[in-house]
Amino acid sequence: MTTTHHPAAAPEPGAHAGVLAYLVTAAAVLLLMMSFGLLMRMEQAQLIDMGPNWFYQLMTLHGAGMVGIAGIAGAAIMWHFLRQYVDLSAGIFIANLVLFLGGVVMILASVLLGNFHGAWTFLYPMPSQSMGMWSPQAAALFMGGLLVIGVGFVLLHLDIARAVIARYGNFARALGWPQLFGRDDGKAPPPTVVASTMVTIVNLTGLVVGASILTMMLVNLYVPSFVIDALLAKGMIYFFGHVFINATIYMAVIAVYEILPRYTRRPWKANKVFLASWSASTLMVMFIFPHHLLMDFAFPTWMLVMGHVIGYLNTFPILVVTGYGALMIVYRSGIRWDMTSRLLFVSLFGWAAGAMPAFIDGTITVNLVMHNTLWVPGHFHTYLLLGMVAMVFGFMYYLGKSDRQEDDSFVGRAAFWGFTGGTLGFTLSFLYSGKESVARRYAAHLPEWVPYDRIGSLFAALVVASSLLFVIRFLSRLGLAGRNVPRIPLAHGTAL
Amino acid sequence: MQQVAWLLSLALMLLVAMGFGFVALRSGRRADDYTPLQVRAYRIRTKLFWALVLVLGPAMVYTLLDLPYAAGHAHASPSGAPALAIDAKGYQWRWELSRNEVAVGQAVEFRVTAADINHGFALYDPAMRLVAQTQAMPGYVNRLNYTFERAGTYKVLCLEYCGIAHHNMVAEIKVADR
Question: Which of A193, A423, B16, B29 could form a disulfide with A386 if both were Cys (CB 3.0 to 4.6 A apart)?
């Protein structure tokens, strides 16, 4: 009836140098983008005065950078564990990072040298209509940078698709469909393979759509008579954006599937419910995107209603399968709480908790008065920062452990509580601001909005400081991260 | 609506936190035999699933009953008069309204579009509470129906990022008592 995971006395494998390069890149960009985010909050709080031009430049970099490194960090986790089941190409993996870095340089140049500040969502036709604020070359550099990054991820996913098909025959088997729709013979692929297959299917689809609209817009930049339908462009951009950013969580959660069972010495089962939920998520993550377009009244109403409905359905796999699954294996497991297990456990809380204001926002009548207020960054920062990023930090702590007996430092524990409390305070300040109708993406706020911004800035500073401590600890242990050592402390009441 | 969304979100997030907190507190002493725990947990999960279906299902359907896309979304004018049409067009970085004075109780159909790029047409009441919005998009006209319920100055803000003066893109609508 089940597959997988198993506690073991064997040492956990260290990380490939490529995985470490991904994580170092992700950590560096993450800290930089967090600092930009803090500066933006402080500007809104009127604690500093950088002006709208800088604000929107930083906003553009913050969005593009965070989405990019979420992809990079998620891919590192997925690749690290997936290669234990299928034969992946290290060359392609590195090529993706090289292309990513090339794209980052293009985007930085576009924004910092070319003054591009059209937001990471590059909504058509803004890149080509800047009112003289940036040149077509700057816009082309930005969109070209995104395209280069996208090509890297397409290569990575094609390699994963190749490896998964070589091992399991086809995607249906890799998603466990024979066990889902037939008799569960206990031979379903492990959760890591199921999740990686799902991510590969949705990301390849999303990236092709994203690359298509980027290419169309690049043509439009230089051939203005090549006009694109603005609603079609928006639909394509949000389809790509939604799929890509959600896929980062589905990649990162593999760390939870792999590591938490080792801590609790209980299996995370790829049973029928698990398989059904991942197959359902494969479809839902692709068909939910109209919930970004609920205020585009001209969009077909049936698609908007579909976005609303799937928003509700989408909470089920998160709450009932993955969130609940973590609770099941931890309950009375004798788990030893260290930084890794704490961060991974809290990451599922962050994901599940953030899904609550998210599905409420996806309710059409709520969206009418909440869309594009700070409610939106309120919910996505909850599941990305306290969810996805916490998974990444948990993975970093896991790799940096020298042995299973090692105790956490006081500083590390303080950073954990600083990160958790800081993120909750930070996201709740966004959500409360959204409730108070505070507009999103505003360089300057009305006086009555400023107190929320000041509270938010305080918590954001706490998040940045805690994250800095996490990253310093990880960087100081890069040597350990590559070694095969037993990293997981034994659960209470268990023996080797 | 905002207050309901806020309280509901807080309550649901708190419930999730309680679930995680409960399990964290009960994680220390190991139950060696996992099978009976699993059986019980699966039973509870089935109940949780159906509880969610029973709570979220009706909420999902109920909230679909009054969609803002239909002309009937605005309350009819007390006089029974047809909705007043106001054309709204977004430019970088200003709003052009065909009319900016209406009476309390007047049902209005805003015909919203954009001359250049995407904007967001958001209506704020005199207390600066967001009461309705739609996207303003080149090549499309989105029809937003709204009945003004309070006298005073309403504001139109842009809620789709449109460039360096996005936050300054404000227009006013004066709503007078009848």
Answer: A423
